[in-house]
Amino acid sequence: DEFWTGLFSGDPDFSEYLSIGALLKDSDAVVLASLESVSAGKSYDAGSGLIEYNATVTIHVERVLHGSLSATTVPINVVLGLSIMDEYGPLLEQLKASMPHERGVLFLQNLASWEKQMIGASTSKYDPSLYRVISAQGIIREANGVARPALNAPGTWPKTFKGQSFGAIVSQVASAKPDK
After folding, report:
1. CB-based contacts of 14: which residues, under 8 Å, 6+ apart?
2. Which helix or strand (DSSP H or E) is residue 131 part of?
3. How do residues 161-175 score in pLDDT, each as one tens digit?
4. Whole-number pLDDT of residue 138
5. SS3 state of residue 40
C-alpha cells in the first residue's frame, strides 16, 4: 500500500475530484499497468534555493482504458521532496526495495501538458514522455484479485472500490464517461 500511495506527489485534498468522471476529464490517459522499475529521476530548480528531487517509476502498460499513449513503457515522475541538498538517496533506495510486483489502474497526466496548463506556456522543463499520477484518487491497485484504492485517496467514491473484484473495477473504469 505504501509504495502505491507514494506514486502521487502532493496534497491529496488539493487534488480531490468529486467523481470518477471529473478525474477522467483531467487525465491524459488511464491505464491498466504493472510496475517495472524505480530509478533516480531528474532534479529541478524549485526556486528560493530549493531543488526538487524526483524518482522515476517505470510502468508497463497492459491496456489503455481512456486516452492514448505512444508507448507501452511509460515513466512516471514521483517527487521525493524539496531541499537545498540531496538528502533523498535513502528514500530512493527504500522506494526501489519496496516496489511490489503488482498491477493497478493509474490516471495519468503528461507533465509537459500539466506545466502548460499551470503557467500558460511550456518551458521545455519536462521530458514530453514523462507522466504523473494526477490524484491520489487515480491509483487503484490489485491485491490478490481485489481492488484497493490508495490509502491517501480523499473523498468517498474511491473507498467504494475497496474489496471489490479488481476485474470488475477495471471494467467500471473503462466504461466510465468523462464529465462534460
Report:
1. none
2. strand 131-133
3. 999 999 999 999 999
4. 95
5. strand
Biggest CA–CA distance in the chain, Å, is: 47
5-24 burial by CB neighbour count: b if 16+ within 10 A, else e? bbbbbeebeebbbeebebbb
* Span 108-167, pLDDT tens digits: 998 877 666 666 766 666 677 889 899 999 999 999 999 999 999 999 999 999 999 999
Residue whose C-alpha cell is 515513466? 75
Q: Locate 59 and state its grid cell.
A: 510502468
Contacts for 173 with CB less than 8 Å, ≥ 6 apart: 20, 30, 65, 66, 105, 140
Instruction: Specify the DSSP element, H or E, that contains 20.
Output: helix 20-26
Residue 125 confidence (pLDDT): 66
The position carrying cell 471489490 is: 164
Whole-number Å distance between alpha carbons of 95 and 143: 19
